[in-house]
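Researcher: Structure prediction, please.
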Amino acid sequence: MNAAAHPARTKTLLAFAIIYFVWGSTFLAIRIGVHEVPPFLFAAMRFLAAGLVLCGWMFAKGEHNPSTREWISATLLALLIFVGDYGLLFWAEQRVPSGMAAVMLATIPAFMALSEIVLLRTQTLTVSLAIALGVGICGVAVLVSRSLHLGGAAIDRAGAVALIVGALNWSVASTLTRKLPLPASKSMSSGAQMLAGGALLLLAAAARGEFHGFHLSSVSFGAWCALLYLIVAGSIIGFTAYLWLLHHESPTKVGTYAYVNPVVAVLLGYFAGGEALGPRTIVGTLCVLASVVMITTARAGKPAVARVEVTE
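Model: Predicted structure follows.
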């Protein structure tokens, strides 16, 4: 066995640590930022900067500019992913704790499974999959229900609906990704989607009137640090680690971030963000994560369900 065929264990562990802990921590960074910067504008700033860096890096490496058809496809996906998912996530984190936002978005594998059953018809609804989907639905119900006496307040319903719609939009976008013409390079494809997404988010921010009364000079140092962290660590470094792992580890292993990120986000929200961690949060989180584990295990051998192909 030569060293080239088997990358150093330390590199593998570091890459997994990045996609586990850095991506899990981005939810708290988002919450910090959206309390000072309007949500769609904050998201636009993040993805425009990350997209420019990533596309610039790929052009410097000699990658070709995407064709007109590829730009159209990237823009369509960007509308679903960046406006319809990330935009709603940033908006929801004004109303929902960061840890709970991560847990709600952990339902993406469930929506992906439903997309494969209903749209792609590449999977059938088995008993085990039905149970997994039911457990996930129960977890969401625990988090949003006001009739269950589990201690702690139910999360804001408008925020919860926005997050569920965002998860649904992501699953639809993931389904379309397999059918639309996109650049062969994953890095260029993601960079193009981030650029288009950042531009669309900027338009959405303008349409929502987010520029009125907003002044850059009023943004605190902490919020700027949160933005820098999201751009550099969450998008550029995290995405690089993710791509590296896809080339050296199985998709099933790489896909384990889907149920590690919410745990990291919940614990970080509790210890660093002062968010509640009562029985309701614990029970709801465990149900959703159990559903994710069951679904991803049933999908072993298929490509990993990935939020961060366009970077978390």
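Model: The first helix runs from residue 9 to 34.
Researcher: Thanks, that helps.
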